[in-house]
Amino acid sequence: MFTGIIEETGVLKELKKGAQSASLTIQGRVIFDDLAIGDSVAVNGVCLTAASLSSYTFQADVMHETLSRSCFGTLHPGDFVNLERAMAADGRFGGHIVSGHIDGTGKIISVRRDDNAIWYTIAADSKVLRYIVEKGSIAVDGISLTVASVNNTGFCISAIPHTVKSTTLSYKKAGDPVNLENDLIGKYMEKFLLSSPDKPQPSGITREFLTKSGY
């Protein structure tokens, strides 16, 4: 499990593509304080396993499912990536629950400055947008962010200077793809309340809420 609080930006040193898979070699520094083979690392929000380690680099394998769900296919050697180790049991929970399992990708439509903040408007598929709510949480390339507004074509987030400077948001521009992971709560609610025919249907306030939300 991750929190969406990025520890550092690393560099993609090597990308080996197979027929439907890939192998990444990523360089960093901060995360190597205690990183061991077999540990989980969120790379641009995607949970990967460190298969080998060598001098501030680690290698991770990416399977077909991950490539099809994420923006990894657009990466090139030299690109910066957001890095976060799995949350320690005694760590602070500064963001929100992030699993590292990407729900889909989005595309940055615009980037604009608003005094000390920077607004990013991101277009996304309806399958992702259905779980996004105003003032809720969203992981964009693994970064825990608060949704400022949402409509039927996309959503907006407003980032403070520290977040922009400390992550790959500082390099993002209109047209760039991003990995998106929805907050788990909405997905679990839908599964528990609507997918099992042998369970009683929601009623009262719950039914009204789900109806207005498009469920």
TrEMBL record:
Catalytic activity field: 2 6,7-dimethyl-8-(1-D-ribityl)lumazine + H(+) = 5-amino-6-(D-ribitylamino)uracil + riboflavin
One Pfam family matching this protein: Lum_binding
GO annotation, biological process: riboflavin biosynthetic process
Keywords: Repeat, Riboflavin biosynthesis, Transferase
Enzyme class, first EC level, given as a word: transferase
Lumazine-binding repeat placement: 1-96, 97-193
Pathway(s) it belongs to: Cofactor biosynthesis; riboflavin biosynthesis; riboflavin from 2-hydroxy-3-oxobutyl phosphate and 5-amino-6-(D-ribitylamino)uracil: step 2/2
EC number: 2.5.1.9
MF GO annotations: riboflavin synthase activity
Subunit details: Homotrimer.
Name of the protein: Riboflavin synthase
Native organism: Lacrimispora xylanisolvens
